[in-house]
Amino acid sequence: MSALSLKTSHSSLLNALQHFFGYSSFRFGQEKIIEQVMSGKDSLVLMPTGGGKSLCYQLPAALLPGITIVISPLIALMKDQVDSLNRQGISAAFINSSLTNEEINSIFQRLAEGEIKLLYLAPERLKSRYFLESLHSLPISLFAIDEAHCISQWGHDFRPAYTQLYCLKQQFPTIPILALTATADVTTRKDILMQLQLHQPNIHIDSFDRPNIRLTMADKYNGIQQAIGYIKKRGVESGIIYCNSRWQVENLAKALASAGINCAAYHAGLESEIRNNVQDNFAKDNIQVVVATIAFGLGINKLNVRYVIHFDPPRTLESYYQEIGRAGRDGLAAEALFLYDDKDVQRIIKRINDSDDESRVDVEMQRFQTMQGFIDAQTCRRQVVLNYFAEYTDKSCGNCDICLDPPTLFDGTVAAQKILSCVYRIEQQGNIDYLIQVIRGELNGQVKANAHDQVSTFGIGRDKTPGYWHAIIRQLIHLGYLQQDIANQSTLCLTQAARGVLTGNSILMLAAPRLQKASYWQRNKQVKNNYDRKLFIKLRELRKTIADVEDIAPYIVFNDATLAELASAKPVNSAQFLRISGVGDTKLSRYGKPFIEVIQEHLNA
Which residues are in the HRDC domain (predicted)? Predict the structure, then answer.
């Protein structure tokens, strides 16, 4: 079957954008990409998570005469996308392992009769020769490959089934391919192009910047309590916490639940039914926080995630940026909080070096070193990320912990002497946590049993927080004044260099501890609260009621940004309602009446 192409004018594209999606203008780059797709060209598109990649194939799918096939990695994502598209007036369906043969045959019948414009498939489907032959009977206009970095062995979410996608050009040489991803370094980009065998592709590399996400790093000194405190400050907002192990996920989720937080665990060791249930309830706002390994979130379409916490360090900067990109997809303020501990870093380095594949170890170590560069940054963190993705900038972002609270040095000689002296007084018998308990005068069973409540340094640092002392100790380790005895439960030992500090023969300048000052979250500066908060809550409650009745995620009805605009503009008729961003003709006819009624009741109250 030959490729179909269609040239469209600027005005007709804008009309379609308004009609189906309710937007009055394209984001940067979208229109040009869509024009290339409509003309039948192959394309590789790199846009940040939440940057509007999906629209680059969804709008052409609505306008092209044939069918658009979308290769997508997750069943839950397919369902959300299909639910959303059908409510925007674009007929869509998916085929995956959740369907019976009878349901699949019914979908193919509807495809043959022209009733479906978009079909979502998992990459594993293309392994079947019979299935590929079935596709040849369909009038396909476009193949869209979402999360295209999964095709590359250098990509952070490598998925073997994606390596079969080279068959698309072999089986359908004249049908254009649109490959999309949010994070791919230069090596991964080259690999995507080679693997997919794209023909003279249009390559669009958008800005990787997500300025609405605040990048924050804090020392992890009591990680579970820090996470609990942070989440409680955020109220009912949705969030994701990433951990590196299933055990850590289960342990943290249990602790959060015990603290009264509505949360759930998600990792590959759980049964698929449980995982799907967690993702579905998170999307529907029935679960506030998901504690997960990186198995969670690939392609997640939930728009109102307000924060992402990294409880453990990611292995690559790509992974970090992909994961934090799941926050703030509606464009409203969000935060990425990274809780950092040296011990976590050492564990990752050990796991990388345990591999027998030396070449793989070299690559993974190089990538983790870039992650360490981000961790150790003393300049704008967003600059570090953007420069890594070859988007060079010399401007600070003003929305990360470094920019908001620049590192400063202070005379840390006395603080260091207190720590080093305490290590000496307890005869080098404690790890970091124990040393902090002694220096802050915390009288517990272990301290009492060791008689360390009798040493002269007991309680001399009670005027400072545990986080403060943790940060000082970490610097003393980095500077070579203390060592951790890994073979002896990480007990702290003095080095020869410590003598000069203890005797007062040298002045020691240290970095002022970077503490989690309310996570640097400054809502009054980040969000313009120029809408009616009481009305917003009423609209959100209506949205949840409608979503529950239709068994869909609330953001499929309207996202938070649209609700905020409704609560500001307060439209009371259909013409006014249609002018709200995110309201298209289909959604107006489907949802406009109940929302207008709530707004009118609020105004008349």
Answer: 529-605
Contact 243, 362 (CB under 8 A): no
What per-residue confidence (pLDDT) applies to 520? Answer: 46
pLDDT higher than 60, residue 156: no
Helix (H, G, I), strand (E, B) or coil at 511: strand
User: Does any domain span residue 311?
Assistant: yes
Final residue of a structural domain among 205, 223, 251: 205
Query: How many domains is the chain built from?
Result: 4
In a domain, residue 572? The reply is yes
Residue range(s) defining the domain that contains residue 486: 409-513
Angle at 400 between CA 523 and CA 251, to 5 degrees: 80
Residues 252 and 329 in one domain: yes
Residues 6+ apart with CB under 8 A from 234: 306, 307
Q: Looking at the domain assignment, is residue 587 inside a domain?
A: yes
Task: Tell whether 447 and 313 lie within a shared domain.
Answer: no
User: What is the structure's pLDDT at 207?
Assistant: 80
Same-domain check for residues 81 and 123 = yes
Cα(498)–Cα(150) distance, integer angstroms = 49
* Pair (295, 334) in one structural domain: yes
Q: Is residue 1 part of a domain?
A: no
Cα–Cα nearest to 535, from 575, 563, 555: 563
pLDDT value for 307: 95
Mean pLDDT of the chain: 86
pTM assigned to the model: 0.73
Average pLDDT, stretch 466-480?
83
CA pair distance 17, 12, nearest whole angstrom: 9
**What is the pLDDT at residue 78?**
83
